[in-house]
């Protein structure tokens, strides 16, 4: 299956980190949106840095360009600084990462909107119901990673829109 | 043997004469007969050696000195008696190897004596080296005979009074004297050489005007000239020759000198700059200016100062230093912005460019091409693709798309 990538992916300079500041900002921006789109379409929520470095995303075989491991880390760090990525395990090693194509807060508000729309405020529902339930069909968060879901709900908790049960099995929306 | 002379002052070197080498424990043979010196032979002035033959002596071993002119044999015990043999008399050298009871010897065959054809003495003398060293001595002697220093000095004597040098004994003093003498000689030779150079400089002006007249002739006949080589020759000539170069002598020192120099630089470089895209590295400028000036060469520092004085002199030429430290002269009509725009156009035209490709396409040096691409990148007009094969520059689509 051939991937659909934006034009930058076929532009050789895209695979060299640009020294010119403004250009670099634009370049990283392009990388960010490309990675997030890619992960979303492939339902990737966490990855091994080395593995993803080999993927078609970072290696364009047609123009024979690939992002070097050092530059890849720069790009991932940029993702992290924008809240789309979190290192798994010790941050120093930077070998595995969680990727949030939506940030937990965004997921949270998405789920809250959905809960409100379905009249689930002030009721208790299980986490299973949110990601796998009948009501959740056709929702973006269907099949969402458990860890990410909990993070999203914790964000709602902070906003006093929901309360997570201690066993982390159920949640109550307000 | 009668060709030797005995003198009390034999150890004193003549003008232009210098000590080459010395040997210890040398015996002198006249033919096959050993020569002996006696203390009694303390007669001042020159005397034929025959005079001393009858005397008995124990002094048969002496020191042998080789100078550029003579062989001098003497015994330190008889301070004032020196036997000297002028080198021109020696016609042929031979070596006698030593044996168990025999010292190695050098045989000197001498030219037949003038007048005294009836002389009973042999036509050769032998030098016996008891402590060896005859090989080296022979080689030195051979060299001295080849060089014929005595002839040179005779010629110098004929030329001027400077030949009368203070006289000095042999030994370390003599060696020092000979060294001093040599360096003096070298000095005069060098200053002579510089006199020649001055003459050449005097000739430079007519030469330059000649070149100018040729070039103007060629210019007049421009229509007829079609041959490529002639055209090239013309361009060489046109780029050559400042008839009246600005020097410190004519234009003083300090800023006024640099301003005048700046004018001259502009005059020389205006045309070449137009042709090469309005920019030239400072090294190229240095070469071109100095070639045009011919002999009145400029130092790099003077050139740099003159370039700094360009704006002051009100000339449309500027010294510009890139962030990388490369300095160039550029016409003010070709500003940095205009240049970046040009680079950008070139990039868009070809899609992407390496430094070499740009240098070829625009006919500029690789250094300049690199600077142009880098400054285009810095301004955001270009972006790079750094791979193992080459550093390639592309139009900056990141910012434009």
From TrEMBL, chain A:
Location in the cell: Cytoplasm
Entry-linked InterPro entries: ESCRT-II_cplx_Vps25-sub, ESCRT-II_cplx_Vps25-sub_N, WH-like_DNA-bd_sf, WH_DNA-bd_sf
SUPFAM superfamilies membership: Winged helix' DNA-binding domain (SSF46785)
Keyword NAD on entry: no
Biological process per Gene Ontology, one example term: protein transport to vacuole involved in ubiquitin-dependent protein catabolic process via the multivesicular body sorting pathway
Any GO CC annotation of this UniProt entry: ESCRT II complex
Location, primary (coarse class): cytoplasm
Record's keyword annotation contains Cell inner membrane: no
Record-linked Gene3D superfamilies: Winged helix' DNA-binding domain. Chain C. Domain 1, Winged helix-like DNA-binding domain superfamily/Winged helix DNA-binding domain
Keyword entries, A-Z: Cytoplasm, Protein transport, Transport
GO molecular function annotations of the record: protein homodimerization activity; structural molecule activity
Family the UniProt entry places it in: Belongs to the VPS25 family.
Protein name, per record: Vacuolar protein-sorting-associated protein 25
Organism: Tigriopus californicus
UniProtKB/TrEMBL annotation, chain B:
Positions of the GLUE N-terminal domain: 3-157
GO cellular component: ESCRT II complex; late endosome membrane
Keywords: Cytoplasm, Endosome, Protein transport, Transport
SUPFAM superfamilies referenced in this protein's UniProt entry, alphabetically: PH domain-like, Winged helix' DNA-binding domain
Localization of this protein: Cytoplasm; Endosome
Domain of life according to the entry: Eukaryota
GO MF assignments: phosphatidylinositol-3-phosphate binding; ubiquitin binding
Transport among keywords: yes
GO terms under biological process: protein transport to vacuole involved in ubiquitin-dependent protein catabolic process via the multivesicular body sorting pathway
Oligomeric form and interacting partners: Component of the endosomal sorting complex required for transport II (ESCRT-II).
Protein family: Belongs to the VPS36 family.
Function: Component of the ESCRT-II complex (endosomal sorting complex required for transport II), which is required for multivesicular body (MVB) formation and sorting of endosomal cargo proteins into MVBs.
Name the record gives this protein: Vacuolar protein-sorting-associated protein 36
